[in-house]
Design goal:
By secondary structure, the chain is of the alpha/beta class. It contains 31 helices and 34 strands. The protein has a 7-stranded parallel beta sheet, with helices on both faces. Strands 14, 15, 16, 19, 20 and 21 form a 6-stranded mixed beta sheet that branches.
Length: 886
């Protein structure tokens, strides 16, 4: 079976042949292996050492003496064979030549094995390939002399790959994990893929007989192991053949993820230094809290962390939370997986917002104590191990919502106040005792004004003994008279003063502030006068904001003005402290207790954005916990059960032909202009344009004349008018009185004309109305006045109109709280009849979608004022985009 140099000359040029000859003579061919696929061909493989190690293979037709296949991992691409193929071919020729002379070739055992297998198969004798190879090697005397010194044949051992193990070690000083792979061939452990390992040799003699062995390298599995480690470990292999994983994150990922996912088919053998790293356990982190009262208004606390009795530092936990790791590193490098990471994170966040003292303890305002106790109680493994008596008393009062001990109300009020109103006064006393502010958020109609007057009345005596300081109430201009009347009726002991009128009149009134117990002014007046208050050094016992949503936007002059008032205590009254979102809550609390909810940017990060954008119920729960002691919210359903029911109905009204034409034209123009504006300028910079377009669409839903200048104001052009007049006619016929609200004063003008045409008595309150009290008296006392026309903004707050039991909301408003306030002008204490509320909605228009948006805003309010956390959506461009659909 010839294989000659001529076969190589046919596939390589002269220069390549010469270089290949030199490589062969220099002994650069390593591990040549030869297999005979058939009696007519030989396949040769091996490694040739050039600038690096190249894997080479070739196949030769021994009959024709031609190379039928050749490949090399080198980059040679000039056509024909490379010098590495030539070197391997020359090694094959030499090996085949030796096999015919002395039988020392590695080819001979393979040929003899084939002959033996054929021999045994013909005779039906089953012999496995390993035994046949051993017998052939013994007959051929491959790799060793044929006999031992005593003349006996040597023991010949062939080892295949038994498996690959990964030996793991840990260098604590460098925080480095070492992975050393070992390929196991019988008792021999070698570095996978190492071409320098001798695959033949001798082992310890057995009973005086020499033992020769050969390793049948499984190059495929060895190379695959190296590839797996390269993929699994970014650092790679060092000069000692050890792969490295450096740092906690890399080590943890390797142990917890890579080994189970990628390396599970290898035997993992951690040595003594690494065993602890493989003992990762999920455990609960415990926290022991110690608290004590420090200076007035502050509380000290400390926290000791531990797990299974072993201490854990705050720094370890903080590092875990900051990096988002699922583990804590112990001092010995091992890993602990907390079972309660959310609890730990919430506690650490609370500590991060406390004042840190030099001795490692913390200080917080006492107002945050309920929040801290709620966090501890909500955690599965937080414990209060020490708490002094003063804090215990404070917490008891917080839970009760009133001071511990007997509370005495003036006899003139004790008989007037309802039980829930007395609790409201007690809650106010609790706030006053500890120097807190709060929001009285009772539903409209439950007597917030009376509760505050009672609270101020109980404070007057002590205030006079200490220092004569009046209290200041800031309210909408339209409610100044209401406060004066209510005070005269229920707390005549309070000397009242209203600061209103022209600038000169207000200046004169300010001279009398020191003589008063109660000063009442409007938001608009305070905005002009607050600098004068500062110049005169006016200070107050209480500063009370009525309809506190007027200060809901912290960027407005009104919000800045109320925060400049100097007062010992602060209260806010609002049935709707969250008209549009939790950002309004921050502004009100920034007036009540500056810093309580953090800086505005911090509040946005912790609460506003998670609640609005991600519907984060945990953030909602934390915010509820923080504000709960300082917000008192009761509803008529729970506290005024004697009130008759309020029945709400929605009536869909078809547009008239004239409205359809105007609405379609307005919608098309709005859709075209607004979408282009938003695309060009972005949503935030297009808000004014969007609201203007939406306003025009809503006007078209009421009457075409609200859009068309000089348009016909015929009431019959409004699709809602027949519904409104039907309700009014039926109410008047039954002796009932009606409140009709509209956003647009122009619509009230059209309704007024319709009422006059039917001879139905009516009065009006809108922004331009001067004498509101006269209009209210006329409606309540004159039986011939059946309808009260009110603009939603001017007439939606501060009025008691229990003479009416029918309410018509002619057009929906964005804010459901504003509509609720309007309807509750009639549904409040003193009402003896069932109140029917009718919402008129233009069918197939923007108004139907406004109702959907109202549900989202109402959901935010319910979520924070109650325990309901559902429906926390923000109004985005995607929400508003739907309003412009046809």
């Amino acid at each position: 079976m010839p294989f000659t140099q001529g076969a190589l000359e046919n596939i390589a040029d002269k220069g390549v042949l010469e270089r290949g000859q030199r490589y062969f003579e220099e002994g650069r061919v390593h591990e040549p292996r030869f297999v005979f696929p058939s009696s007519k061909s030989v396949r040769a493989t091996g490694t040739v050492l050039g600038t690096t190690r190249y894997r080479v293979s070739m196949e030769v037709d021994l009959v024709e003496d031609i190379v039928t296949f050749q490949s090399c991992t080198c980059p040679y691409d000039r056509g024909g064979a490379c010098k590495h193929v030539v070197a391997l071919g020359l090694a094959a020729i030499a090996d085949l030549a030796r096999s015919t002379v002395d039988g020392s070739s590695s080819v001979l055992p393979q040929k003899m094995t084939d002959i033996l297998n054929e021999f045994f198969n013909e005779r039906g004798i089953a012999v496995n390939s390993s035994d046949a190879m051993k017998l052939a090697s013994r007959l051929a005397g491959t790799g060793a002399s044929t006999t031992s010194a005593d003349g006996r044949m040597p023991i010949l051992r062939d080892y295949g790959l038994d498996g690959i193990r990964l030996v793991i070690s840990y260098d604590r000083k460098r925080d480095s994990l070492g992975v050393r792979p070992e390929a196991l061939y019988g008792p021999h452990a070698i570095m996978p893929g190492d071409p320098n390992v001798a695959d033949r040799g001798e082992e310890k003699p057995v009973r005086g007989r020499r033992v020769a062995y050969r390793l049948n390298r499984d190059w495929h599995q060895e190379r695959k192991c190296l590839q797996d480690l390269d993929f699994a470990l970014e650092i790679g292999v060092d000069s000692h053949g050890v792969w490295q994983a450096i740092g906690g994150q890399e080590i943890y990922r390797f142990i917890s993820e890579t080994i189970p996912d990628t390396l599970s088919h290898y035997e993992i053998v951690p040595d003594a230094s690494a065993k602890r790293l493989f003992e990762t356990r999920a455990e609960v982190i415990d926290a022991d809290w110690k608290t004590s009262m420090s200076e007035r208004g502050f509380m000290d606390f400390s926290v000791a962390w531990h797990c299974k009795g072993a201490g854990i530092t705050e720094a370890q936990l903080a590092r875990m939370m900051e990096r988002g790791d699922p583990y804590v590193r112990r001092s010995d490098g091992s890993f602990l997986e907390p079972k309660n990471p959310d609890d730990v994170g919430q506690m650490l966040d609370f500590m991060n917002h406390a004042k840190r003292r030099a001795d490692g303890t913390f200080a917080i305002e006492i107002s945050r104590a309920p929040e801290m106790l709620s966090i501890i109680a909500g955690a599965d493994h937080g414990r209060k191990v020490a708490m002094d008596r003063r804090i215990k008393t404070f917490l008891e009062e917080t839970q009760a919502g009133k001071p511990i001990g007997k509370i005495t109300l003036p006899s003139s009020l004790a008989s007037v106040l309802r039980p829930y109103q007395k609790r409201g006064v007690e809650w106010g006393m609790f706030l006053r005792k500890h120097g807190f502010g709060g929001i009285l958020a009772d539903e409209m109609g439950l007597g917030k004004t009376l509760q505050v007057l009672a609270l101020l009345s109980t404070d007057t005596g002590s205030a006079r003994r200490r220092k004569r300081l009046p209290s200041l109430v800031v309210c909408p201009k339209t409610l100044i008279g209401t406060w004066m009347q209510e005070s005269a009726k229920f707390t005549p002991n309070l000397k009242t003063l209203a600061i209103d009128g022209s600038a000169s009149e207000r200046l004169a009134l300010m001279d009398r502030v020191a003589e008063a117990d109660l000063v009442v002014t409007s938001y608009s007046c305070l905005l002009r006068d607050v600098s004068i208050y500062a110049e005169r050094g006016l200070t107050f016992r209480y500063c009370v904001l009525d309809e506190a949503q007027y200060a809901k936007n912290g960027k407005t002059g009104t919000a800045r003005a109320v925060k400049q008032v100097v007062a010992d205590h602060r209260l806010a009254l609002s049935g709707t402290p969250l008209e549009n979102g939790v950002h309004e809550l921050w502004s009100i609390f920034d007036f009540l207790m500056p810093g309580f909810l953090g800086e505005h940017h911090e509040f946005r990060r912790r609460f506003e954005r998670p609640i609005h954008e991600r519907r984060d119920k945990q953030a909602l729960s934390v915010l509820q916990t923080k504000i709960r002691p300082f917000v008192l919210r009761r509803t008529k359903a729970s506290e005024a059960k004697e009130l008759p029911p309020k029945i709400e109905q929605t009536r869909e009204c078809a547009l008239t032909a004239a409205q359809i034409a105007v609405y379609a034209h307005t919608l098309e123009a709005a859709r075209r202009d607004i979408f282009e504006t938003v695309e060009r300028r972005g949503f935030d910079r297009s808000r004014i344009d969007i609201l203007a377009a939406l306003l025009r669409l809503r006007q078209a839903c009421d009457h075409p004349a609200l859009i068309l200048k000089g348009g016909d104001k015929d009431p019959e052009l409004a699709g809602k008018m027949p519904h409104a007049m039907e309700i009014i006619d039926e109410a008047v016929a039954g002796g009932h009185k009606v409140l009709l609200f509209s956003t647009f004063t122009g619509m009230l003008d059209i309704v007024r004309a319709a009422l006059e045409g039917r001879g139905i008595g009516h009065v009006t309150i809108e922004g331009r109305t001067r004498n509101r009290d006269a209009a209210i008296r006329e409606f309540n006392e004159n039986p011939k006045v059946s309808v009260f026309l009110l603009s939603l903004k001017a007439g939606g707050v501060g009025l008691t109109l229990t003479a009416a039991d029918t309410v018509i909301l002619f057009d929906p408003w964005w804010n459901p709280m504003a509509e609720l306030q309007a309807a509750d002008r009639a549904h409040r204490i003193g009402q003896a009849k069932t109140v029917n509320v009718y919402k008129l909605i233009a069918k197939g228009t923007i108004e139907e979608r406004v109702i959907e948006l109202q549900k989202k805003k109402r959901a935010i309010f319910d979520a924070l004022m109650t325990e309901n956390g559902d429906g926390l959506d923000a109004l985005t461009w995607d929400d508003l985009r739907g309003l412009f659909e046809g």
